[in-house]
Specification:
The protein is of the alpha/beta class. It has three domains: 23-30 and 49-196, no CATH class; 248-420, L-arginine/glycine Amidinotransferase, Chain A; 428-532, no CATH class. It has helices spanning 23-28, 53-58, 63-66, 74-90, 98-105, 108-119, 121-127, 137-154, 167-182, 184-196, 230-242, 259-265, 312-329, 346-351, 371-376, 401-407, 417-420, 502-510, and strands spanning 42-47, 94-97, 212-215, 218-221, 248-250, 295-298, 301-306, 332-337, 359-363, 366-369, 378-384, 392-400, 411-414, 428-434, 450-453, 464-470, 478-482, 490-496, 514-517, 535-539. Helix 5 (98-105) packs across helix 11 and helix 8 (137-154) packs across helix 9. This is Arginine deiminase.
Length: 545
Amino acid sequence: MKKVNEIIGQGRYYFDKDQLLPVSELFLKYKEPNILDENQRLRRVVLSGPPGIEAYLAQLLPESESLFLEKMNVSEARKEFDTYDKLQQELGTITHDAKQILSERVLPKKIVDHFITKKGDKYVKDRMLDENGAFDRDKILQLLYDKVESLYVQFPPDDKRTKDTAYKEKVTELLDDDIKRYGKQQALALNLVLSVIPRLPLGNFLYARDQMNTVLDTIVVSAMKKSIRQPEVELYKIVYEALGYKDFLEIDQDGHEGYDVLNKALGYLNESGERTGKGEPIIAPEKESFEGGDLYIHEKVVYIGVGARTSFGAAYQIYNHMKDKCEREGYQMAIVFDENATSKPFNKQQDSMHIDTWSMPIGPKQMEMYVDEGLKRKILLFKNSNSPDKTTDVIDTGGNFVNFLLQKEYKIYPIPLEEQKEFGCNNIYMGKIPQKELANLIPDFLVDNVKEYNIPDQPSLPAIPYLSGNINGFGNVQVWIPQNIFGRDEYEIDVVPIGTNVVSLYQLMSSGKAIVFAPLYECTRGYGAAHCMTGQIHRSDIYLN
């Protein structure tokens, strides 16, 4: 496989089958939004670009505001991201760098006009521009320093968040690295948009699945619940529009339809709309919300997690928009429902905030899951009613997520809570990749490096013989292939972000997967991992020549 990175304002591209294609032709490959199943081969994605000053600034906030799990070493996270991006390309995925695109689409003049409107012409000239009317590096740097100080005033340091006396050095280093990556004016404009203009820095921009989610052939624009994340959505919309995508499904945050239908299905209201006394009716939130991490598709079922971040009303809108297509093509839409999510403490909400943080399809009729969460989640089904006006019915299956999957003859691979919290489910399935496409990646010495993998505290489980080694040209990225599948014409590959989740890794290998371990330890500090970082646009098992 030959690879060429070419930045043309629309992302990075690879050329395959040893054939150099015109960029315009390659751009059309796997172009259409097309996510029919989480376990088809991944073909095209949007990635955020390396985390930057915005991620550093977010850590100055309390966890309830920043949504960060732990302190992130942003410089190391940038290296991890670059490796992950390169790895995606080497595994055959077309990647688009959202920051690269934004740096070329967010025009400095618009930013200047914004600040003139907010602060006045004199402020802009004195605090932002050089004598030629261009952004001045040192002045923008001072605005970033001022942002740090203003955040410390707004959110005073405490026992958990001591003041960082080295913040100027860190901010300067990150800004200068951005200037090398994007160019001076583009980098300065980008950092104004991500860190200075928003009330809170957009530190979660890294998690590129959450802002947009492709559902069958429809790109759904998220309505993020938390204020720090809401400005990300418009920026990602700019990115998708720059890539040529124009038709979106946008959630109406004031569209509180379906709650009567829901409460009747749950038995909280009778057909006349009166309370039955069986439980408290579900009340519509002030604003409906949907986040991309709360939806995946597997085995002809669209699963939407409704809980801490995604509301029932938003799921109802998605179904109503897509129900004719779902019915025509044989898809169900299932709500994986936690009706008590919003009453939980913040940290408990974070632990299971999206469906992809505690469960993940890993193959045909295969699901990796923190089972305790699955047992708590009710399954509701949307269905077109038989009435003349074709309203939407909600059906309470009476069972939980685990029961629902078992009835469909799934094999569930359980993982423990401590691994779920360390993103043991948040892997990214790359698909079935022919061995010949992997020839340059798999180490030559792999066949001589057979080990046995077991779970130390579960000696009754048989050890799995596997072959392992560092991938050529990728430093500490490793490939682990179970011995019983080594030498096949193709491998099902899962990319995992954390190498210490021993049960999760065992389950993946026991299910016949080859594992590529791409360390994303620092990138996970903000409550997300490989799956959260990957905005999927196209999956397909069909090879387009």
